[in-house]
Request: fold
Amino acid sequence: MNAEADALSAARDAVKDADRKHVFHSWSAQELIDPLAVAGAEGSYFWDYDGNRYLDFSSALVYTNIGYQHPKVTAAIQEQAARLCTVAPGFAVDVRSEAARLIAERTPGELDRIFFTNGGAEAVENAVRMARLHTGRPKVMSAYRSYHGATSTAINLTGDARRFGNDTATAGVVHFWGPFAYRSPFYAADEAEECERALRHLEDTIVFEGPQSIAAIVLETVGGAPGALVHPDGYLAGVRALCDRYGILLVLDEVMVGFGRTGTWFAADHWGVVPDLLCFAKGVNSGYVPLGGVALSPAVAATFATRPYPGGLTYSGHVLACAAAVATINVMAEEGIVEQSARTGAELLGPGLRALAERHPSVGEVRGLGTFWALELVRDRATREPLVPYNAAGADNAPMAAFGAACKKGGLWPLIAGNRIHVAPACNISAEDVAKGLEILDEALSVADAHMA
Ligand code: PLP
Reply:
């Protein structure tokens, strides 16, 4: 037993040592981080080399929608690897055709043509390229409360603070305020007023920018990085109508919220809105192999019917990733995972998180859909002052750091962003694990309560 523990400790040290010496991590000051060494994962859990198991309420980065190591998907990847591990993107291949067919069957409206990428940012990047070429217009608009990826155009579209280190001020991006009733930028009294004023603000922005210069509005159907920001009823339909009025394309970014996350195949299904272009990634194959893409309307696809599309990727529609997508989508359909996500939200997570809010004064707002929720933590419920300031770091962020540490100590891996915890477990999480996660959150929220004003 001791020999086994010693071997695991040695393995952990070797992994961490090589990581610290040779791996350059995203979004981090390299010398200030201490990444956990992960030894394995299955279903809703992963574990380290020291015997700690974590219930993953972050789904990695909100992408393991069917959990880790689903045996049907790992088998499909292995079978594909044995049969045909790679082939250039210019060929027609069975598994790529089938992945495109299965995705197109589920995307809203007539978005029936799929351009494959390796992830979400490339999907956004290509959607913008398509929109600019289709309309012949240069500008793109996006919301301040948003994240669209870390490549050049995508990070400039991004509204949140991750843009700051990348802002070239030359990306042709115009930001606007979307609706957010809890922290209304429009001083609205309720959701209906927030919706109406947000649409008026968007139209004013379009008119003052010059509609003839705007190619697309890029919008997360439900805000991901801003924390399960569900638009009020009527907002997306209103944006669609503005796009139609001014000849602007609507690009819905469903990278985080597609494939069951909000309890429907695509979040747009909640409101019956059909975009001109839809970006996806993450849940399309639960991130088992990198894959993303853009679904195109017939009109945008027609622009490139006889004129070459000036974009491409060496690994566009990689067959291993497509095999994982085919298996994932089939598993989701066979096991009713989209419906399970909706039920889990309506019957377990929604009521459970609202009950926590009743007990913990630090919870200012609970919002979400399906298996995608957020708790907004505050110093004061009346003023709604966030528990930590916007873009807080170091000592300023101490209350959220303490709350996160309490979650991990209890055995739950949280996704914390700013003053929020995003609750995004696997879409097929069991009822027992939801209950267990809520119990751990209950304890950890007492730590947040203690940091209130
Ligand atoms: N768009 C949205 C809405 C996202 O949430 C993300 C990633 O979190 C991206 C785009 C970028 O995706 P990727 O990191 O795969 O490039």
